[in-house]
Amino acid sequence: MSAIAPPATAETAPPTPNYSEYKVVPARQPWRWVGTVLVAAGVAAIAWSLVTNPRWEWGVVAEWFTAQSVVNGLIETLKLTAISGVLGFVLGFILALMRLSSSPLLVSVSWTFSWIFRSTPLLVQLLLWYNLGYLYEKISLGIPFTDVRFFEAQTTTLISQFAAAVLGLTLNQAAYSAEIIRGGILSVDQGQLEAASALGIPAWKRSTRIVLPQAMRAILPNAFNEIIGLVKGTSIVYVLAYSELFYTVQVIYNRTQQVLPLLLVATLWYVVITSVLSIFQYYIERHFSKGALRTLPLTPLQRARKFFTTHVAASPTKDAR
Amino acid sequence: MSIIAARKDSAAAAKVAEEKQAPASAASPANTTTAQPASVNRPATRGQVDITNVRKSFGTTEVLKGVSLSVPPGGVAVIVGPSGSGKSTLLRTINHLEKVDGGYITIDGELVGYEVRGNKLHELREKDILKQRTHIGMVFQSFNLFPHLTALENVIEAPIVAQKRSKAEARKRGLELLDRVGLKDRADAYPRQLSGGQQQRVAIARALALDPKILLFDEPTSALDPELVNEVLDVIRELAKSGTTLIVVTHEMGFARDVADTVVFMDQGQIVESGTPQDIFANPREERTRSFFSKVIEPAFNI
Ligand SMILES: Nc1ncnc2c1ncn2[C@@H]1O[C@H](COP(=O)(O)OP(=O)(O)OP(=O)(O)O)[C@@H](O)[C@H]1O
Ligand SMILES: [Mg+2]
User: Which of A195, A203, A290 is nearest residue B144 as measured by Cβ atoms?
Assistant: First the structure.
């Protein structure tokens, strides 16, 4: 009897079916499709209105886009951005180190600097620098409270529109970047500094080789925000009648009365600069994420190449086999 | 340089240690401790550590209450004790990461962090303190590897920056050291691509790169999964035979028993007692020591 009955285990645990031959069907996401269609329709509508509405005067835009005066203005804008951006961040780095130092004097100097420059409007700062000659006729370098002078000049000759613009933008930028850099430095684990000093690495190298490269990850997104803001922020120096991009465009439309198309010219250039900066940002951030991620994601270019080689180029060979 | 060196006795070194320690013990007999004659395999001639009556407070709490300890060249001292007893603080005073409030520490007779001028102790300038630190390697509980540098770059950073060695020379030596901790093939990996045990071994190679006289370990295995503990302890075991002076804070009692010349038991900012592993584990004199070990060791054996 017992020999005829099947073993108990065979009844309670049927063999697992083999799924290895089954085809995989990805989960359906209908709402993603609805969303895509809506966005595409919106984009198409905007593009259509831009192209077909004659009041945008694309012809005028094209005419002025690469005009010599506009290009000159653009170069001035880039120059101001580069100089005050670099100087601003260098000064900001020094201010951040001062603020984080153990010397109460350095801390308060740095704090006061940021306090003053962050609490006065940039416009006021620029006008003050430009009109410094009114406050102080001469600028001289010498020993205070004596007649010894190494250097002396008329303030108005020393502070040109360009100098006032660079001075104003740099000092303002330094105050903001100091805070960004300080935030970045604070985000680095204290143990890093401790390990570096236990290894006998000098303070300056600890900052530049150990802490700063790690702080960069936190600093970069904000720093690029600032730089991109600065590109457009330079347009404020029009108050000094300094012929950067925005002032140039204003001069032109005051003459030709084609206000909107010329504003569009300036806008398009700002878009171009911002786009280029964003590409830089992507690659610089990627550089500094070395070691922070276990494996770096592919860049868009690498992804495109991979897509091309696996889907487009590879398919004929697959067929051939 | 191989870590496995021929075993020889350094009676001379131990004798030096005993002589050095004599005045200190007269000053505060209860707290003074001398490591036993080191079972060194190579006649170690450098790395004598003398801690004399060191005091340290944070705010109003006194964390070190007059600690004295001598470790002879090549000696291996293991410090054990309950959490908060001041073990890490003591270790950090040895390379002047913490300033002492009283007492002093010498390494091969040279004061750490101070110099004698007239009858005063003047604090050294940062530059000189950094130079002293290059003789003292330190390995941290949380590794503290530089995450933006590869394993090899971590190891060669200090030799290049602090000792101004050439890059080629530093790389050659760095690869040797990584080989010594069994990680030559991971030289180009970033710390986050390594397991905890591997990271700690890189950290040990990094500490060795400056060719220190003394190595300090602060709970080097406490952040590791149990199965990774041994690969790190094995490296330290090898180092113990190399003639470098080791001072290790750990909760690994088995390791302490194997490797230590001297086991030091600390509690509430004081050294309660110290001696050979045999003495301390088998016949502790003090009640506090006994009750600590009954808590730490017994459960471990029950598992
Ligand atoms: N920087 C500091 N500021 C204030 N108190 C501190 C500081 N560092 C340590 N302490 C205190 O000093 C005491 C001793 O700390 P320490 O880190 O030396 O203990 P420990 O023996 O290493 O403990 P554990 O085994 O938990 O690591 C503790 O009470 C701790 O809270
Ligand atoms: Mg500790």
Answer: A195
Q: How far apart are CA A127 and CA A242, in angstroms?
A: 12
Predicted local confidence at residue B206, as pLDDT: 97
Is A200 in contact with B131 (Cβ distance < 8 A)? yes
pLDDT digits (tens, 9 = 90+) for B30-74: 445 555 444 445 556 889 999 999 999 999 999 999 999 999 999
* Tens digits of residue pLDDT in B262-289: 999 999 999 999 999 998 988 889 999 9
- Interface touch A200/B191, C-beta < 8 Å: no
User: In the β-sheet with B49-58, what is the strand arrangement from edge to edge?
Assistant: B61-71, B49-58, B102-107, B110-111
Query: How many Å apart are CA A140 and CA A150, to the nearest integer?
Result: 7
Residues of chain B with C-beta less than 8 angstroms from the C-beta of A213? 148
Question: In this structure, are residues A111 and A179 in contact, taking their beta carbons and an 8 Å threshold?
Answer: no
Q: What are phi and psi of B200, to 5 degrees?
A: -65, -30
pLDDT in the model for residue A294:
74
Contact B203, B142 (CB under 8 A): no
A65-92 pLDDT, tens digit each: 999 999 999 999 999 999 999 999 999 9
| Rounded Cα gap, residues B235 and B276, in angstroms | 22
Question: pLDDT tens across B122-161, in order?
Answer: 999 999 999 999 999 999 999 999 999 999 999 999 999 9
* Distance from C-alpha of B124 to C-alpha of B105, rounded to nearest angstrom: 14
Specify the 3-state DSSP secondary structure of A81. helix
Chain A CB within 8 Å of residue B167 CB: no
**What global pTM score does this model have?**
0.78
How far is Cα B232 from Cα B223, in angstroms, rounded to an integer? 11
Longest dimension (CA), chain A: 126
Strand partners, A281: none
In whole angstroms, give the CA distance from residue A270 to residue A275.
Answer: 8
Q: Which two tokens stand for residue A151?
A: 């250097």
Give the residue with greater pLDDT, A310 vs B260: B260
pLDDT at residue A315 in the model? 52
The answer to whether the CB of B36 falls within 8 A of the CB of B10 is no
Question: CA B95, CA B139: separation in Å to the nearest integer?
Answer: 12
Which H or E run contains A138?
A: strand A138-142
Determine contact, residues A139/A153, Cβ cutoff 8 Å: yes
Establish if B147 touches chain A: CB-CB under 8 angstroms.
yes
DSSP for residue A182: H
CA quadruple B9, B12, B17, B23: dihedral, nearest 10: 150
The terminus-to-terminus CA distance of chain A in angstroms comes to 59
| CA separation for the pair B293, B289 (Å, rounded) | 6
For the beta carbon of residue B257, count every other beta carbon within 10 angstroms: 17
Chain B nearest-CA distance from A211, in A, is 9
| b (16+ CB within 10 A) / e for A67-92 | eeebeebbebbbebbeebbebbbebb
CA of B136 to the centre of ligand 1 (A): 21
- What ranges in A132-258 are assigned the alpha helix state H? 132-135, 155-158, 161-186, 190-198, 203-205, 212-233, 245-256
Tokens at A103, concatenated: 């010397």
Neighbours of A251 (CB within 10 A): 16
Please state, in angstroms and rounded to a whole number, the distance separating the CA atoms of residues A266 and B260.
Answer: 75
Do residues A308 and A316 touch, judged by C-beta distance below 8 A? no
User: Any idea which residue has 């702080």 for tokens?
Assistant: A215
